[in-house]
## 1
Amino acid sequence: MMDEITSISVSKLSSLLAKKEISAVEAANAYLEKIQSLNSEIGAYISITAETALKQASEVDRLRAAGEKLSPLAGIPAGIKDNICTKGIPTTCASRMLENFKPPYNAFVVDLLEGQHAVILGKLNMDEFAMGSSNETSYFGPVKNPRDTSRVPGGSSGGSAAAVAAGLAAFALGSDTSGSIRQPAAFCGVVGLKPTYGTVSRRGLVALASSLDQIGPLTKDVKDCAMVMESIAVQDKWDATSVCHPNPEFTKGIENGVQGLKIALPKEFFAAVSDEVKNAVLAAAKQYEKLGAKVEEVSIPHLKAAHSACFVISAAEASSNLGKFDGIKFGYRAQNCSSVDDIYKLSRSQGFGKEVKRRILLGTMFLSTGYYEKYYSKSLQIRTLICNDFKNIFERYDLILTPTTPTTAYKLGEKQGDSLDIFMGDICTSSVNMAGLPALSLPCGADSQGLPVGMQLIGKAFDEQLLFRAAYAYEQNANIGQRKD
Amino acid sequence: MVSQNVLQKYEMVIGLEVHVELKTKTKIFCSCPTDFGAEPNTQCCPICAGWPGALPVLNREVLKYAIKAGIATNCKIASSTKQHRKHYFYPDLPNAYQISQFDHPLCEHGYLDIETSKGTKRIGITRIHIEEDAGKLVHLEGKGTLIDCNRGGMPLIEIVSEPDMRSAEEAKAYLQKLRAVILYTGISDCKMNEGSFRCDVNISVRKKGEKAFGVRTEIKNLNSFQFVTKAIEYEFLRHVEAIESGEPLVQETRRFDSTTGKTYSMRSKENATDYRYMPNPDLPVIEVTGEMLSSLKAEIPALPDERKKRYMEEYGLTSYAAEQIIIDRETADYFEKAAAKTDYPVLVANMILTDIARLQQPDEPVIPISPENLAKIAQMAGEGRINSKTCRLLVQELWENNADPEQVVREKGLEQISDEGILTQYAKEAISENQKSVSDYLAGKSEAFQALVGQVMKKTNGRGNPVKIQEILKRIIS
């Protein structure tokens, strides 16, 4: 029974709960038991909030028994990436710096989920301050890929992807700055969406790069992803970059198919990936043609430049955003400091890990006099160019189809210390953040070792509906052999 | 010490940066109140205290207030403008950056006209931008340092002038005019003692006639007009002495110590922070529409210079007197009420600027005499019914007890004595009692004549018509 509950989709579980075929407490217990038995091996959770989860679940059962009309997410057990603030629950960003940090407030998305009576199972592991693509920079140790525990789950939302893949959460929230939802979704064989910039409030998300960050769902299938989005795509007046989504009924028309859609395949993306990944995505493109879409090769000339520029902007903003972690007000403070400068230097030297310090140093340089024009300004110019590249394509096409990652999941430790190689892991995803567009990664088969391959669908701004429609059409018609319900 | 002759060869070049705290109800990026003087850390929240995940949202009132400041100082208002992060580490700055504006500020290219003993002068305003204030450190003797976040996120505008001023007098006149204009718009209390109007002075010194600027120093956080004047005078001397003796001056930031009257080095340019300005990605570009501008323009009351022009045209005030009246809005309002009720508005202005100014305390600016009563005094003086000495006496008397001045004059018999017969009698007496003064006067000592006038005035109990007394005395003696 336990395995059954933890392997079914949110939509299925939701209808079972609604029909009272199982209770929310049963569902929560099933997940908590599975976490109990698997988390030490997978390392997906940093904090497990069993007690509050069961309290939330029994409240759902009480409300349902009382005949209350509940949201589809009521009683659905979920995990939250540990850079999204949860009131009174540690929010560590997988860093020593915030090891004991308990925010006195919820992120807006957490308020939304709790308001809809979702059950929060705990806080999910990640790369430290969301800086990384393998989940190996976490202060609390790496997450392992449930498909092959010798391999990385991807990152930075590695815990989120692994939890969904291993059945340790019905769905999870992650954050995506240059691929941090989509890349681990691809590595772990789940669905992940980076929404249009501004769709999901960033309030309460500990910022990495504010102009690129978006919170989004990781789910077992496409419909779940659309369902979760319907719950979290709400405008927030306390996030000045939050907007009112014009088409927030994400599940609407999901079954309408791809007949007549025009799909672009940008050649630069395919040139950057392994043959196995390339072939799997091209096979998916063929599938779309079979389903009635028109698929054509196009060019996005500024892809490589955009990827480098994304790193510059991301590091620059991170160096600014992480200034507040100075050992003065909250977070880690070094001992035996004799001056305020000592507090800054030692706390930041000891509290941050290597990758975080590397990016703060680089970001600080990018913004410094003498380098600003050369790096930061130049990157903003490139941002305009990549936006235009996408705009040109979307004048003629409805969707863009690309691989999500250059390779499938690699071995733990394989790329450690090779920052450049890890950096190239985001080549297919970062340009989307630069342009603020929505993009979804979903599984499209496996490589020769049986590891999942992810493909990425990129849409026009606020056209998530079409992404879900196209992804759902593929999912329903492809023999991808990984869905269990 | 350098001599006056040497000083004469130099001129100072002054530019001022003024921080004005806006009196919006809430802070610039959150909904914390802005009241002054609350218990430490009772007016702060995750946003203004810089907690992880907290985001700023611009208070639209701040934008409106700042635009009003721009309109009132003749600036061009940008149709779109960005907010930036200015980075530096200091414990009172919880985010390690201050949200400010870098290039393309909200307001640019304005000016103010000032009035000094040398006449009218136009001072350019380079820019006005919006920014947040930092918190405050409280140093406890022997117990360490505490942080008070109440001031963090308080809304400020920074008003930067062109380096157009050449004396401490001009700097003071500019500050007074700027403060007057801001007060008229109603966007700030401009209380220097509470820090809602703070001034930084940029000063350099060069030989008169030279075009190039000298080495510039910046004196931070001067919180009274008097300190601004003193700091400038001290710094001018210090620069001239250094130039004369060939000692190098360094570009640096200095602070003024009001107890010693001297300035001291804080940090030099070599140690200056690289602020790494970047556009704040949390805040969208601010758009200012034409409708917004015109509705804000309509909300601005008549500004000091409009009133000044009217006082000169309608009431015949001199430019200098009009400037002194308009520089304080309450005084100007008071003047207008009184001037409307008399045929002698110039006398009203004179009394306000001399007799009343003498009695006013800086911390108690309210005038207890009703404008109607001041108008009556002016009317009596204008008609020659009382002399200037009685005017002063009446102002003094009414300051304590706001009675009807006509009645006071009647009851106390203060009417001016202009009667030829009476004054001639007193003049003759004074001449015979003060023969020495008469001979001194005839020998060419004009002070002796004034002594005689005084003697006659004394005999009238101060009520004599001074013009008549002089006429009569001269007639008799010659």
Note: Residues 2-232 of chain A form a domain with the Amidase signature (AS) enzymes fold (CATH 3.90.1300.10).
## 2
Amino acid sequence: MSNANFLEFSKPFIEAAKNVFETMVFTKLDPGKPSVKKNNSSKGDVSAVLGLSGVLTKEGAEKKYRAMLVISFPYDTYIKVAGAMLMETYTEFNEEIRDVGGEICNMIMGNAKRDLGGLGYTSDMAIPSIIEGPSHTIKYPEGTTVIIIPMKSAHGEMFLELCYAEGTD
Amino acid sequence: MALKANMKILVIDDMATMRKIIKNMLGQIGFTNITEADDGATGLPMIESAQESGEPYEFIVSDWNMPQMTGLELLKTLRANDTYKALPFLMITAEAEQGNVVIAVKAGVSNFIVKPFSAQVLKEKIDKIFNK
């Protein structure tokens, strides 16, 4: 397995995340320094998770790849982001705002897909899921490298994670 | 043609979040008569019974990806029936690929919007649909 194209793969997600937050959450995202994540413990309390897989065609060769997008929010950020998106005031995490993170992930992935197509990737999106609770565990696809990028916004900090590996079945 | 504030609109999306966002935006634009459905499969009978009751929906705003009946399947079903051939239908999708636009246009969509979008963009699309 390889992650040779990970950097190129990750760029469309950052741009898509900025676009989604600016248009639907009315806030700018300020990405911090990416680092490799070595454990599977979440940085936030609410994580939206969306898998992606497909084939990368580059220099005449085809390779399967597997990836996952995670956006992990502290409760306070999640509640404020949901409030901004839905134009309501929320004071706690509840069922009404549970799918906000999934919808954000969906939009980011959907946007990134167009640019990934230009880089030679076909991509099948899975259905987003939400994991909630302090320091929960995130199950990354086996053999993938995980990078984590802190993102600052007017609603607080959140963490965008991407994991990626080529040559997987 | 000036649009009526009480135009009967059906918003179809499996995600409650997105339904609420679309309803908020339609409200900002000035529309007041908005109903929701959570899938094409639940939206279709609502469209049919509204038609039978003599108070038909005048505008459908539908997501593409839904678990039971997709927006595309709903659109095709409606366009196959003479009653709904001209029913304005705005498709919303998260996937920004050009191929999707072509598929939706072939199926008879009135217009197409890619998430994320602002209320202003939604208004422009609605104006285009109704001022053709």
Note: Chain B touches chain A at residues 15-18, 20-21, 24, 93-98, 114-118 (CB under 8 Å).
## 3
Amino acid sequence: MSTATTSSSATRVGVPATTSSRATKVLGWLTLAGFAVLVALAFAWVPEDTRITEQGDVVGQFDAVRLMFVHVPSAILAYTGFGLTFLASLAYLRWRTDWWDMMAHSSAEIGVVFGVLTLVTGSIWGRPTWQTWWEWGDVRQVTALVMVLVFIGYLAVRRIPAEAAVKARRSAVIALVGAVNIVIVNRSVDWWENRTLHQQSTLFARKIRDETLFTLSFSFAVGMVLFAWLLLHRFRTAYLESQIEELEVQEALEERRAEADGADHGREQP
Amino acid sequence: MGTAVFRDAWLIAGKDLRVEMRSRVGLNQIVPFAVTVLVLFAFALDTDQEALRTYAPGLFWVTVLLAALLAIGRSFAVDLADGASDRLLLSGIDPIAVFGGKALAVAVQLVVLEVLLGAGVVLLFDVTVHRYGLLVCAGLAAAAGVATAGTLYGALVAGLGVSETLLPVLLLPVVAPVLIGATRAFQDAFGVAGAEGWAWLGLLAGFAAIYGVFGALSYGALLEEA
Amino acid sequence: MTLLGRFPALTGVDLDISPGETVLLKGPNGAGKTTLLRLCAGLCSLASGQGWVLGHDLSEERRMVRRRVALLGHRTGLYDDLTVAENVGFWAQAAGASHQDVDEALERLSLAGRLADTRVGRLSAGQRRRASIASLVVRRPELWLLDEPHAGLDQQSRDTVDSLVRGAAAAGATVVLATHELERIAVLEPRVVSVVGGMVRSGGGDSEGDAPTDGDRRVS
């Protein structure tokens, strides 16, 4: 009786000792190459942003516009990460498998990294164009800040030493509530200051130059490859961590059984 | 379901409030804390009466949120102190009733706190109330919003060992819309800014409704664990 | 198997208990007795294996189990700031019991009168335990799970605990208890089950021949 009650991981051989694989190597090199091309495009090909007004003044964002190729893809990756966390949390609550839990955790971490990058680059971009590091009247900026704070809280919960199932369930609920909250924050900040400095999405308004549009699209593509590369590595790290945990449980189980056997033995002896 | 849920929610709320009335932690610690925060704000803004009057709505609501953290933490600490939380699980009471009852008790405490703090703001910051109806409605709706969101997050962090530090990190960003809405509504009620107070009341009510539903639905999933 | 964090508190449980039976869990501290009792109450989850309590599956229907059992643990489950009567009254109402049930329970555990109106925080350990038991009696549980009910009590409270166990057993309830005071419940002639290092074995009793798998637990 009472053998093999846990799911057999201690004996599983062939658990890789690395998070690297052929897929991640390809993705990694693609990211690097894409990045090099992106830098070249952004600095050499895309012209600076200038416009001549009717009065004959030269206006525009000049070289600062090149920040767009970091800022906008970062924002998209952050939202992708949080969106994935939301979906994975929903899936976890539905199916209760570790896979979805690890997916939610991994994508949230990547989301926070890019969320912070979005805030930093946005702030740097805001300095020359809006003449301020931070603009409270801007809906997207404030929403992004609150969103990053919510998911930093989420990651704080993930780091608590607690029973795995309890932590996974509570984290999932926090992710769901957090995602709903982003919508509420967005609406309320919008009403709060009913004005926005942020350029309304200029992508489809044809005000944007072809070179800029192409480079921006290219930066999205590089961003997505980077995201996939990071996610694979992070997910595999999470998986290996869970394997370590399971090994520890197995070890504790052996000790516990030895304790029981020892007691049996001791009782039979005299 | 049905009336049993309301009866049980009422039972839980009554129990929580009775414990609070007996222990006097709210009266002896949370209220003095909140008043102290108001005084600190006055020190921070110097003796500028005009600034205090202008910012009174925002300062008031920041103070309420800080005090709410204590009240929410306490609501769960009382259950955890001697194993009553396990008994609640074993009682078979519908999780929706537990959530509703605890949120109601927190909301009642917040309303009492708001009344006391409101008197403090009128006295210390020299504000005058122009619209009493708006003031009362916004106060109630904001209390409901903070109580529902707070009870949900209080349950999320309860028993995790670091709940005192975790609750503020998680809850404060979430209740940011309440701070915005309630501050605007109070600015209108105090006549310090021409905000559309009643429209903001809609936001507050919507927030309370969303978190009420969300909390009631997810509370069962949180309670199913050991 | 039941995990507490990463610690496997219970590793192999093979135990059947029939309705109305009185079972004594025997074993050293840290053997897993408390976890076993909490598992039976539906407060712990099974990491693997299966179990049924009162006909309900422990993986799926823990809520159904919870409302039909009474667990007396190391903690009282009471609110220090409320009086004994208020505490017992609260848990009685939560279980749908009447005021009369409350009065009876208080009477039975010698808590009526002045003690009933005393705040639990001011009671002695023995009085607290009795108040805790009173708040369980009102639930009329079908399965009593008692974790060291005698520990740290004065003589009067010990006797009260004994009479409670006897009364519950006589009324046909199933009683599972962990205690070091073997002689106190010897009169009930309990079945002794040993718990060691997370392993639970029915004392060579009449467990069903077709008992399905390991890590299995059935309390009917």
Note: Chain B has one domain: 3-223.
## 4
Amino acid sequence: MEHANLQVVGHAAEELGRLAVHHVSYLWLIPLFPLVGAAINALVGWKLQRMFGKKIVHRIAVTAMLAAFAVALRAFWQLLHLPADERFLQDTLWNMLTAGRVTVDLAFALDPLSMMMVLVVTGIGTLIHVFSIGYMADEPAYWRFFSYLNLFIFAMLLLVMGDNFAVMFFGWEGVGLASYLLIAFWYTDPEKAKAGMKAFVANRFGDFGFIAGLLLLFWALGGAWTPRDGILRNTDYQPAAELNAVAPAATAAEADALAPRVDGVKVGPTLNFRELRDQVVIEATGVKERLVHTHIWGVSILALIGILLFVGAMGKSAQLPLYVWLPDAMAGPTPVSALIHAATMVTAGVYMVARLNFLFALSPSAMGWVALIGAATAIFAASIGFFQYDIKKVLAYSTVSQLGFMFIGVGVGAYWAGTYHLLTHAFFKATLFLGSGSVILGCHHEQDMRKMGGLKKYMPITRWTYLFACIAIAGFPIANGFYSKDEILWKAFTSRHLELFGVPTPWLGPLIYAIGIIAATGTAFYMYRSYYMTFTGEYRGNSGHHDEHNVDPHAAVAAKASALSHAVHADDGAAHAFGSDAHAPSHGAVSLRAADHAHAVHATAHGHDAGHSAPAHDAAGHGHHGGTPHESPWTMTLVLALLAAGSFFTLFLGIPAAWTHTAPLLEHWLEPTLLAEVPFANVEHVWEYVFQGTGVLAAVVGWLGARALYKDGISDVPARLKARFEAAWTVVYNKYYVDELYALVVLRPSVALARALSRFDGTVIDGLVNFVGAIGRTLGRLDAAIDKYLVDGLVNAVAQATWGIGRQMRHVQTGRIQTYLYGALGGALVVVLLNFLIS
Amino acid sequence: MISLNHFLVVGALLFTLGLVTVATRRNAVGILMGVELILNGANVNLVAFNHYVTGGVTGQVFALFVIVLATAEAAVGLAIVLSIFQTFKTIDVRHADLMRE
């Protein structure tokens, strides 16, 4: 660490230059492959699946992923061979929008940071795709699942590879969409559909903060909504006058020519990361000075920008208080939980803060908040994780907690450490999630750890990989988690520059360290608790809970149902109760809630088989229900082994400088991107060993605690403790009633507001509309009367008259020839008489 | 001495008798006969005026034309009557009133 300190000391003299850019033309291929895979499976996947079976579907998806990963490796190779300060690949496809001097290109960029993210996303993404082949084998909508997975990877790649905020934001929203689609994948179950909506809505709150921060940043850089002067203008800032010059620009080149420059550096409002970095980092432009001294309503604008952008990160990365969606997101299929909610998407917020490190570093207040929220989330989520019984819920809260650690890292200014934790977490949490997926599949879609136990006998590979990931997350030095967590906590302890509300708070760093070390102990405890409950002791899956099932006809028909056709199934109302439980992994009554649901359906299921859309799965599901647990297919165990190996090998990226006296590999690699200068206290070298020792001690304490209480499931201490502290246990088990609090604080008022508005709408607005309608109706009636009696009367009178005359006249036409002759004679007589009279 | 007036009176009588016949007879053949009387009344006038007033043969030629015309008219008229009989089984013109109203 002295190394880093020395660097900071020597940094002031060092002047950063403009970023060298290498233009390449193949980066667009990386997101293209998953997009094509998603499109093929979305458009014709169902047909392919019916014609050629499920194999073709996952082959398309996995091939797309492998292709993307291959191109990413090619880019990595190229980056490796460039000088460290020139590692920036850029690929502009086309200009999307030009307005004034603002240009938005569809462009991709790879610098060391996004390169790392792309490798994680495509690499771990590929593994999770492979895992899904086994996990989703019974799923009828197989093609839909793989299409969504590919779509998610596409959006995630846009997010991390975007050269500007617009492309990043597109990916940002895209992963939100894909996450919604995947959480609510089994949409026939209202609970799961609701979880999807919850994730989507909670993320919208964050996105609001993100976009507000973005617009504020744009404004602070000199953008203006209207071209007027006098607001936020700093007179010593030379290009200020030119900033709002309104001139037409139709192309990117014209817009570029229009931009004011200082020493050749483009300044002014921009959405491009590289331009932003150049003008903020290069002191001569004066942009940094201007930003630091700009205040709005007495608040530093940088702090405001940082906090608003962090609100966006809170939503995406599940920090307090917007974390609530992530535990519920476990309703989705387990590979999704691994891919989206552990390895990639939730790290988007951390990535964003790291990407904008030069901006956050300028505002100690923003950094203080980021670190504090991160620490609070880490301890809060860890404590909830203590008492959950659903294995996926434990992992979900663990993810929230680990994300808190990452934010501590990027918050205190240890950007590379936060990013490193992101990387290590991607490996070990993907291992844990996929391991839990393997367990869930092995236990016939059972997620409750109380119904597991003793699985090490049945699932050796899953057990060992899960255990290794536990070692990693708990923080033993033989796996990667120790190195990233230790670095974060060490940096937190030595940070003295954080501020809150603009007030320097040098005590905040040590406080965060203390919270972090407690959270780390908790992490070790609840992870080992989940390990011991799941893999040691006796298998509890065949007792208790399953007895309730033996009394219903379901179990009795299970064996033959697998052999019988769908038609026979349909006659068997009992089997259908589970069919309407929507081909879920909770099939077979996972939790008590699901069991109740199934029973409730039982009561009414006879006679109607509504919602039964998955006969194939149903039959397959029944086939292996209620047996002993079994190890998962080789595709799944292979992935687990690879990820566990990754959890080991990535430790070499972060060997502390204290041991080797050179910067860790990853820090060195990320240096060109994470260039913010953050001062850390100069603490004696030996202290770092002490802190590493403390970290290991925390892990050991957590591990031994869990071992004593939960190993083999023989200790009755947990039950006695639970009985002793029933009230506290209930509060924590119910997640501190945060969901209920949300319901009270957010949901109830908004529903009340909606009701009030509805009433306003129903009475005032509808009243007005109805009043206008009534006037119109009256006028219409009047008009109709006029039409009916006056106009129609006239017309009818004419018709009547004609008709009457015709009626009378027809009597003349007798049909007798002599009558006509009389007429003719009469006429002739008249003519003769007239002739006489006139002449 | 028989003057022009005598011929004119005979012509007028013939015309009037024919007219009355046409107007009153129910029998279609009778009506046709009435028409002959009218035409011949006119013929008398034509010949008389030719003799007493103009001289030459113009009036007499015209009378010959009228006779030819009357013949043709009788032929057509009798054919119609025959058709009426076939349709109505009677030649009473009062019954041939399908076209009324």
Note: Residues 4-100 of chain B form a domain with the Helix Hairpins fold (CATH 1.10.287.3510).
